[in-house]
Amino acid sequence: MINERVTGDLVIRTALPAEADAVTALHARARATYYPDGIPDDGTDWLAVWRAAVERPDGHVLCAVEQARIVGLASFRTPEGAPADTVKLFQFHVDPGHWRAGIGTALHTACVEQWRADRRRTAVLDVHVDNRRAQAFYARQGWIPDPENPPADDDHHLYLRYAVSQAATQE
After folding, report:
1. Fewer CB near the terminus (10 Å): N or C of the chain?
2. What is the pTM of this model?
3. 74, 90 in Cβ contact below 8 A?
């Protein structure tokens, strides 16, 4: 597991349980940008979800920290029923006030490093159909539409795939 990765003033490390409040707040700020009518209230207790994700022994939550403030986060693990060499990127967010500063790229690079260390071959994710900015970011990182999960007509998410094993040859 990544203990700490330093890139300039940015530190990428494993999130701590005590940081669940800060992670939850960043998550809410980021999600608000792609819900024009506000984040739907589906009853999810996001603080409890993030606490569980940080404490989960079979998952990873990385955070990007700049000047002692969490400015990015990524949560991933093997999804239920998936092959052991597959990882799902469940959450990936950069604080909107820090977009276009290289934080997302540095955080994604740290994720890929961890996936390689964990011997993952494939990463998958789903992204909200209205989140064009995130879709463009993922495309720049090498994610492609997942041929095994084409979106249904009424689906609110697109499914993407990333070949971790190929990423090693692209650098």
Report:
1. C
2. 0.87
3. no
Report the alpha-carbon distance of residue 58 to residue 144 in Å, rounded. 26
Give residue for tokens 């239920």: 80
**pLDDT value for 77:** 96
Query: In sequence order, what DSSP letters do the residues of the chain get, joined into one string?
Result: ---EEEETTEEEEEPPGGGHHHHHHHHHHHHHTT-TT--------HHHHHHHHHH-TTEEEEEEEETTEEEEEEEEEPPTTS-TTEEEEEEEEE-GGGTTSSHHHHHHHHHHHHHHHTT--EEEEEEETT-HHHHHHHHHHT-EE-TTSPPPTT-SEEEEEEEHHHHHHH-
